[in-house]
């Protein structure tokens, strides 16, 4: 069975909304609900951990009571960073397999979760092709990166819980912050393979105001229109 | 197992639909809801005995009790697959003659009860692979007719509600149909137009046939639209 950490503690400062983005709607539905809709029918998930700011716990309780009565879940206080939020969630994981996803990626599908969970490899992520050129540097160009050797890292991701916790302890000891978990896991569990499943361009991370506009189209044409 | 809820099943379009659907091989359980027990019993008598049916005497204007009723149906049958909102009310009044009670009763039966019942049922429909909802509105909801403002406005609400829900629930594979019959030879119509020869207008069975066709049409191409049903033979 699987423990599922759903990250919903982001402040969403870049989307210029009064509410954190996970509570802002696309197609009339908060991003958090978009994700929960895809989770609730998955039999393999027997522990749902939602990392959030506790001031929004009442809102989440109401959402779940209205939309998924009877759903078992645990609310865990998020940390100051994404990495700390995952760390908090890992403390209560009861299963040896953990799947991590974030509310800001609402266009994941049930079958994407299932494919990840049912993959025979223990550590698996999604990654999409990079369709644009990537150069190294800020003020000046310092290097040319080969995009066909790179991957646009996506969530959801699956790991062996105990190994991920070990990696986290080392990262914490080194005071090293990562923006997602595959990088952290790779850095501190080098002997472990991380399999990359082909991700889709639709699985965007809602980050900027324009993503809400793009999201309306993705929802209408992809989630409702074409999902099998 | 397909379980169907039909409101307004004691007469008119509700009864005709219940009778028609009782012959549908896809249907296993039919829960018939109305305030009139004798009418429900007569509907059940006309239905095929091949389907399991349950009669529930319930006043849908008791909005606060709808959730509990739906929960008990779900607990008993394990799923709710089709919901047919057919119950209706009309007491047409000119604007200056109408009352708060008349407006309130018209909207409560025609819209609020339908909306609350739908909300209660959709909670369970989301657990299904496929579900269907049929809301019976009226041509009055899209065409003006003096003296019918409350009824027309309530049916316009049903039409817009249906169109909106069709979009909102598509992700859960819940198809929402809106059927708007024209003049139909129901008891209600007889009371409102006593001089009219009921044989010259559309029969409840004609509307029932349309609903049956929608529910058994696998393409679901007509979901989310205001479907006008008129008898062109007249």
Task: Supply the key terms.
heterodimer, A: 228 residues, alpha/beta, Spore Coat Polysaccharide Biosynthesis Protein SpsA, Chain A, 7-stranded mixed sheet, two-stranded antiparallel ribbon, 11 strands, 34% helix, B: 234 residues, Rossmann fold, 7-stranded parallel sheet
Describe this structure in words.
The complex is a heterodimer of chains A (228) and B (234). Chain A is α/β, with parallel strands linked by helices and 228 residues long. Chain A is built from seven helices and eleven strands. Chain A has helices at residues 31-39, 57-67, 82-92, 110-118, 161-173, 181-188, 209-224; strands at residues 2-8, 25-26, 29-30, 45-52, 74-77, 97-102, 124-128, 135-137, 141-144, 152-160, 195-198. In chain A, helix 5 packs across helix 6. Chain A is globular and about 50 Å long. Chain B has 234 residues and is α/β, with parallel strands linked by helices. Chain B has helices at 12-21, 37-46, 66-77, 100-125, 149-169, 187-192, 204-215, and strands at 3-7, 29-34, 52-57, 82-85, 131-136, 174-181, 226-229. In chain B, strands 3-2-1-4-5-6-7 form a seven-stranded parallel beta sheet, with helices on both faces. In chain B, helix 1 runs parallel beside helix 2. Chain B starts with a strand and ends in a 5-residue tail after the last strand. Chain A binds chain B through residues 27-28, 37, 41, 67, 69, 223-224, 227, and chain B through 123, 126-127, 167-168, 170-172.
Topology:
The complex is a heterodimer of chains A (228) and B (234).
Chain A: E1 2-8, E2 25-26, E3 29-30, H1 31-39, E4 45-52, H2 57-67, E5 74-77, H3 82-92, E6 97-102, H4 110-118, E7 124-128, E8 135-137, E9 141-144, E10 152-160, H5 161-173, H6 181-188, E11 195-198, H7 209-224
Parallel strand pairs in A: 1-4, 1-6, 4-5, 7-11
Antiparallel strand pairs in A: 2-3, 6-10, 7-10, 8-9
Helix pairs in contact in A: 5-6
Chain B: E1 3-7, H1 12-21, E2 29-34, H2 37-46, E3 52-57, H3 66-77, E4 82-85, H4 100-125, E5 131-136, H5 149-169, E6 174-181, H6 187-192, H7 204-215, E7 226-229
Parallel strand pairs in B: 1-2, 1-4, 2-3, 4-5, 5-6, 6-7
């Amino acid at each position: 069975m699987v423990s599922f950490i759903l990250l919903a503690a982001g402040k969403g400062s870049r989307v210029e909304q009064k509410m954190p983005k996970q509570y802002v709607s696309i197609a009339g539905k908060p991003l958090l609900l978009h994700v929960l809709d895809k989770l609730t029918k998955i039999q393999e998930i027997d522990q749902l951990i939602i990392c959030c700011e506790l001031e929004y716990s009442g809102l989440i309780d109401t959402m779940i009571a209205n939309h998924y009565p009877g759903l078992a879940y645990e609310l865990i206080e998020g940390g100051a960073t994404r990495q700390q939020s995952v760390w908090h969630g890992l403390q209560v994981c009861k299963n040896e397999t953990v799947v991590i996803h974030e509310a800001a990626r609402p266009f994941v599908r049930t079958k994407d979760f299932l494919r990840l969970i049912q993959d025979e490899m223990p550590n698996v992520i999604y990654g999409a092709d990079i369709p644009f050129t990537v150069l190294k540097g800020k003020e000046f160009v310092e290097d040319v990166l080969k995009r066909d050797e790179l991957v646009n890292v996506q969530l959801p991701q699956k790991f062996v819980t105990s190994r991920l916790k070990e990696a986290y302890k080392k990262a914490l000891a080194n005071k090293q912050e990562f923006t997602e978990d595959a990088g952290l896991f790779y850095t501190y569990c080098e002997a472990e393979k991380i399999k990359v499943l082909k991700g889709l361009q639709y699985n965007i991370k809602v980050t900027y105001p324009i993503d809400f506009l793009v999201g309306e189209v993705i929802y209408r044409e992809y989630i409702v229109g074409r999902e099998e | 197992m397909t379980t169907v809820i039909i409101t307004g099943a004691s007469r008119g379009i509700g009864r005709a639909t219940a009778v028609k659907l009782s012959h549908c091989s896809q249907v296993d359980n039919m829960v018939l809801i109305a305030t009139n027990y004798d009418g429900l019993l007569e509907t059940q008598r006309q239905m095929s005995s091949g389907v399991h049916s349950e009669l529930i005497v319930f006043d849908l204007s008791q909005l606060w009790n709808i959730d509990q009723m739906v929960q008990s149906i779900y607990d008993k049958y394990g799923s709710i697959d089709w919901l047919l909102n057919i119950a209706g009310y009309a007491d047409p009044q000119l604007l200056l003659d109408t009352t708060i009670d008349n407006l309130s009763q018209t909207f409560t039966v025609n819209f609020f009860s339908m909306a609350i019942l739908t909300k209660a049922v959709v909670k369970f429909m989301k657990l299904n692979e496929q579900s269907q909802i049929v809301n019976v509105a009226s041509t009055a909801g899209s065409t003006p007719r003096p003296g019918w403002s409350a009824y027309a406005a309530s049916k316009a609400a049903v039409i817009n509600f249906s169109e909106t829900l069709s979009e909102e629930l598509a992700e859960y594979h819940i198809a929402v149909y809106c059927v708007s019959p024209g003049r139909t030879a129901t008891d209600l119509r007889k009371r409102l137009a006593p001089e009219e020869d009921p044989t010259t207008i559309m029969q409840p069975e004609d509307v029932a046939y349309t609903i049956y066709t929608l529910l058994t049409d696998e393409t679901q191409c007509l979901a989310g639209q205001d479907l006008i049903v008129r008898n062109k033979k007249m």
